[in-house]
Amino acid sequence: MEFRYLGNSGLKISEITYGNWLTHGSQVENDVATQCVRAALDEGISTFDTADVYANTKAETVLGEALKGERRESLEIFTKVYWPTGPGGKNDTGLSRKHVMESINGSLQRLQTDYVDLYQAHRFDTETPLEETMQAFADVVRQGKALYIGVSEWTADQIRQGVALSKELGFQLISSQPQYSMLWRVIEEEVVPTSRELGVSQIVWSPIAQGVLTGKYKPGQELPAGSRATDEKGGGAKMISRFMNDDTLARVQDLQPVADEVGLSMAQLAVAWVLQNDNVAAALVGASRPEQVSENVKAAGVTIPAELMAKIDDVLGDLPVTDPGKTAEGAPKQRVA
Predict the structure, then answer these.
(1) CA-CA 20 to 30 A from 227: which of 77, 169, 170, 197?
(2) CA dihedral 85, 89, 92, 98 (to 10 degrees)
(3) Which distant-in-sequence residues (6+ apart) come within 8 Å of 21 by Cβ?
(4) How many CB atoms lie within 10 A of CB 55?
(5) Residue 205 pairs with which residues in a beta bridge?
(6) Please, are residues 310 and 42 in contact by the beta-carbon 8 Å criterion?
(7) Domain NADP-dependent oxidoreductase spans what residues (predicted)?
(8) Residue 230, class by beta-carbon neighbours within 10 Å (0-12 exposed, 13-18 middle, 19+ buried)?
(9) pLDDT-wise least confident of 27-31, 51-55, 58-62, 191-195
(10) Is 234 helix (H, G, I), strand (E, B) or coil?
(11) Terminal CA-to-CA distance of the chain, rounded, Å?
């Protein structure tokens, strides 16, 4: 395993970070989830990412149980706040001081820890003054409940405002967690340059494009049973639908020779590709089986030669989504209750 600094801080994290969105507490039985976490630890992964909204708090509970007994100082545990949790009352959502302060306490209890290494604003809250949110985060840090603060799916301007306020309030906003893959490159034009300037790293989710970049989905063929694309209940099918067209699937198949040339599986190539971006501190990978963790870890420390990076661009052509406006377009315009 390789380790990278997170933003302009002294915190090192594993460049393959284990995330439990769409798996723990919902798609995967608890004992299998624990096996996946143990596999991650065995492979040298020390960084674990979750959120209070995943499976409506159950994912945090499962992760806390799975990590019980591990030396806390050897782990980096991340979680997030914004989306509705619990019964979904009027203050059970957003980034108000009330919700932030109550949510961190709930997360710590479920994770069975005194602090998280990184506490992230899961989206930007248009209905709460940013000053109120950042003051709440400052207090969470001063109380020792979180060491650092991050954000997820914020625009470049929002990140700039957040970093400015964090400096005024005396804490560090060091990370951004956006979607990023060969097929979804909306952060490259604005978020990445702004983050580089401000000392913020990316922790990217869905580097394999919800499984599309594994190559298992073939154009014109039936969907594999039990795959993300068939998950109507858990929301996986909705998330992956943007990529499920024959043109995209056909071009992904054309990446196989590139993967072969560098000696990687298609999934490993996808993870290694995002890690070539020097502003990316970690790629988030999930798993429904322990062996998936072991396979994904093989992307750590890999350097894809420049000529193969160019070949990937040639194969995909104008297929990748690059419009930086997609970050704001996909953000909630008001709190979701």
Answers:
(1) 77
(2) -160
(3) 50, 51, 54, 59, 205, 284, 286
(4) 22
(5) 179
(6) no
(7) 15-315
(8) middle
(9) 27-31
(10) coil
(11) 40
When pLDDT is cut at 50, 70 and 90, the band that residue 12 belongs to is: very high
Q: What is the pLDDT of residue 288?
A: 80
CA distances in angstroms from 70 to 77, 97, 170, listed in the order given = 12, 32, 31
What percent of the chain clears pLDDT 90, i.e. is strictly above it?
74
Q: Over the range 134-144, which residues count as b (16 or more CB within 10 Å of their CB) and which as e?
A: bbbbbbbbeee
* CA nearest neighbour of 304 among 275, 329, 267: 275
Q: How far apart (Å, rounded) are the C-alpha atoms in residues 323 and 195?
A: 17
What is the spatial distance between Cα 60 and Cα 73, in angstroms, rounded to a whole number? 18
Give the count of beta carbons closer than 10 Å to the beta carbon of residue 274. Answer: 23
What's the pLDDT band for 224 if we cut at 50, 70, 90?
A: low
pLDDT on residue 32: 82
pLDDT digits (tens, 9 = 90+) for 300-313: 999 999 999 999 99
- Between CA 231 and CA 236, with CA 234 as vertex, the angle to 5 degrees is 55
pLDDT at 223 over 70: no
Catalytic residues: 54
pLDDT beyond 90 at 168: yes
Q: Is the pLDDT of residue 90 over 60?
A: yes
Altogether, the residues listed in the chain come to a count of 337
Q: Which domains does the chain have, with CATH numbers?
A: 12-209+275-302+321-329 (3.20.20.100)
**What is the b/e burial string over 186-217, where b = at least 16 CB atoms within 10 angstroms of the residue's CB?**
bbeebbbebbeebebbbbbbbbbbbbbbbbbb
**Summary mean pLDDT of the chain:** 91
Contacts for 43 with CB less than 8 Å, ≥ 6 apart: 1, 16, 293, 294, 297
> What is the spatial distance between Cα 218 and Cα 261, in angstroms, rounded to a whole number?
21
